[in-house]
Structures
1.
Amino acid sequence: MPQLVLASSSPRRRELLDLVNVPYEARKQLVDESKMTCRSPRAYVHALAELKGRSVPFSVDNEVILSADTVVSFEGNVLGKPKNREQAFQMLSMLSGNIHDVYTGVMIRSSEQETIFVEKTSVEFWPLSKEDINDYLDTGDSYDKAGAYGIQSHGSILVKQIKGDYYNVVGLPLSRVIRSLRSYGIYPDLSQQEHKVTGNS
């Protein structure tokens, strides 16, 4: 049976795969993102997802490697993870009352085939006061997230609406990934998921 390898240290991507009961092994990848020169957000995540995916070698022949990278883009500029509170404040001030785009590049590869695609979701923020932004920054939720917010946690209160895949904003366009994995012989265990939901009701 094919074995899925998640080439990522992101806890959010692990949580998303766990959500639909896809068995996988997490394996760290080491790439130098500072050398990336792509200016287009779409090209950037495409190239970085591929770079991450190719940086992880196959341990056995039946492995399928999944890699991804997510960025926030506003007016064509890529917003990565903020280095400090001041930078996080600046990012959220830019996004306040505006629409921005979230791009995730995904690469899936086996020894016999590979798939690369980019998913885009548009996100609109409510107009935010300085107090709104500082209250959010006080939660500490900003610093390990592109664009300085997490839609799946405290940052949800900043978001007015989205157009596209919600999970793409979290860090992985889950539905499209699962459908793409079918051609590699990897499927979620939905019977186990149903059992969990039933058992917790």
2.
Amino acid sequence: MSEEPRHLALYTAALTHPAIDNHAHPLLRSSARFALPFEGVISEAGGDVALKGDARYTLACFRATRQLARLFGLGEEEEDVSWEDVKRHRDRMDYEELCGVCFGGAGVEVVLMDDGLGGVEEMGEGLRWHDRFVKGRTRRIVRVEVEAEKIMKELFDLDIAADGEHWETAGGMEEAFRALFRGRLKECAVDPDVAGFKSIVCYRTGLDVQVAGHPERRYWLLLYEVYKTYQESGTVRLANKPLNDYVVAVTLEIAAEYKKPVQFHTGLGDNDINLMKASPAHLQNAIKAFPSTTFVLLHSSYPYTREAGYLTAVYPNVYLDFGEVFPCVSGDGQRSIIRQVLELSPTNKIMWSSDGHWWPESYYLGSLQAREALYEVLSEQVGRNELTERQAVGIIENALYNTAARLYALNG
């Protein structure tokens, strides 16, 4: 923004107020910094053609190129700097210096980190490593499907070593899984490093979860199917709807008991998602069934943002995260999404996140573009006398920091 801001107090709050990043992922280790195509910073597309070819022709990429050129000091005439120029420059930088530059420009003080992203164990940095770039302590968001898969693998390995004795009675493996999964979630809930839980059921079987009747239902045959697949492939992937729904139901129950928010991936994602089942509207029955559990709808639920806004307006236990669309969506699209968020959502129930992952630039772009979009949308409304500048500043302070600090009990 080269022109003088019309509402200086609002502009200052939007661009400089400290932020809590309420949903992000680990960065790549230095030794793995070139393991993935950098185009992933501006696109969720999969495959070389869509990601490394098509993604660079999006408005999101054109905009990110200019913003990163300014960040890296690649000249005043940013229009002469290409995406490849940006890549070559950042590839030559010392890795920790690169991370410091990006976080220094992001204004993030605390990160809530989902460390269950595929590939983190092989390529990602640990939770505490990230503390060097932020003022506060990085907290963990526990991805519950991954915890369930770890427990299954532990049980299956024990059973294979014991020649299948857990399957001698129909309920043996099931009872062990139920007890261990509940125990694992409770351990996480009392861990001071854990801020909340997260479900990726949207990816696995869709958001149309059925949360009734799970204590009485028997799952041993379904577990046995997962067991046989593990014997054949060596991998455990929880992608069976009754089992996935059970994992969500138990999570919602324990989260209510320990007052931990549960984040749900909704809407925007890669091509592994069934988009028809990615609308948060599918969660309505679960929201009603667990009124004491806090639901956080991630990623603006894009393109189902209005459905998400409706849920925040009518259910006191629903909050909306407006993240990931920065920087994957164009500037016009981002402003439209913020407007849709504000159509119905109470402004004390919206929170920002970067969905930063792998590359430090994803944190920087996620912060800068969200701040710019908030300012532009709210300044329009102040200009139309629909709210005061002081009210608009309050909205920004809540969205960037205060609401997340309260919801995740970060000041306690």
3.
Amino acid sequence: MTHSAVLAGSPFPKIIVNQQDEIPIHLDAISEGMDWKMVVVYRGKHCPLCTKYLNKLENYKQRLQRLGVELVAVSADDKAKLTQHLTELSVSFPIFYGLSVEQMQELGLYISNPRSKQETDHPFAEPGIFVINENGQVHLVDISNGPFARPELDLLVSGIEFIKDPSNNYPIRGTYRGHV
């Protein structure tokens, strides 16, 4: 099987997941008052590194909001696992559930099978971050094949500050497709 990630500069896919109240949400939709969106894909409740990363991400929420960047997270967990996980999290940003294998593949995420039933009971996405700009394009993308390689949050948010500063006129990077 070949692996293909969502290309920088391409539209973020139309993906529907669930909010905790079971209302479907379009992951690509940016809330009113914001002009960009950061979608953080995490492995699920079973991953202590994800819990730590999400809790640390809470410290950047206000800074991102000041930049006009909406912050959300999503996993392949079901509602019950998300509800259990929320007891371990200290976050105020929305966390969604129900990412399907097909949606993970559409995003170009690495997908793993659980090592045992004790770990979890379904295939899950390895970490990914997608920053969507005001045009619905993927401006930044970072995917990993394991929980140990994720962007350092201060550097990531500082980079978004730099990109969003109009005086820097910073384009979407990584768009070369083999021709000049």
4.
Amino acid sequence: MSRTRLYRNGVLEAENFDPARISDHLADPSSVVWFDLCEPTAEDLAAVSEELGLHPLAVEDAVHVHQRPKLDRYASHLFLTAYAVDLDEYTGQLVKHEVAAFITTGALVTVRKSEGFRIDKVLERWDASPDLVKYGVGFLLHGLLDFIVDTHFEAVQTFDTQIEGLEEQLFDGNPKDSEMQRRTFELRKSLVSLRRVVMPMREVVNAVLRRDLHIVDQEIVPYFQDIYDHVLRATEWTESLRDLVTAIFETHLTIRSNHLNVIMKQVTSWAAIIAVPTAVTGFYGQNVPYPGFGHTTGFWTSTGVTIGLSAILFAVFRRKDWL
């Protein structure tokens, strides 16, 4: 499935026209064409490659999945790879949607590796900024990058909310250790995955702003600088959250360890108290004469010694906050 748009003289003139007419429209220097493909094969890209003179290596990367976010420069065009992301709030799993783009002076060709990439959201951004259409391909590229970076920012904000929930569970009176450990591990794993997507975007946006590439007009540079600022904020936020998740996990282990130490002190204290009557009754259970042997006074003496020593030990342990 393919989608197309034609902008002429800063105005949207046609949509969903026959892709075979792309070269005809590009013959007009006032025209800007957008062409979108979803999950194309090499054969699907062959026709577009001939029309725009795309480099074979770029076409190969556009077909293969799991490319690193990057911006490659070729003689006739630029090749962009990036990822939009979605975060499942219930499972903590990060879902990545890969997109590739061929950027020429008069056309933007987007290649989505899956239908999960919401291209309609990109179109909404283009339609919401009709005053920027006059900047041509730079305008189209801005809308695409702005959407991608916003998904990163939204994911980071959701991560922040999830991690705040973990912080509240740290000092819960009845913590669910296994659930918290699983959640912490899932969030940390997703943050590592997000970092691999967000970090390279600094280089991508910075490369777009290079003047020698002649992609962006000076009038639209502030809009790309705003994207770059969002990329930096998302990157720094991701790094801090990753460190915070690690700190939460380590703090959780420390709290559990301290709690276990308290339990061990309590058990040891009670064991010491219980050892007193065991020792006394064991002594008085000898089959040899002793003071009070065979008399009622022997029973009351052993009982008094047991209760007295147990009480003394209980008081000492309470004073030490072991009980």
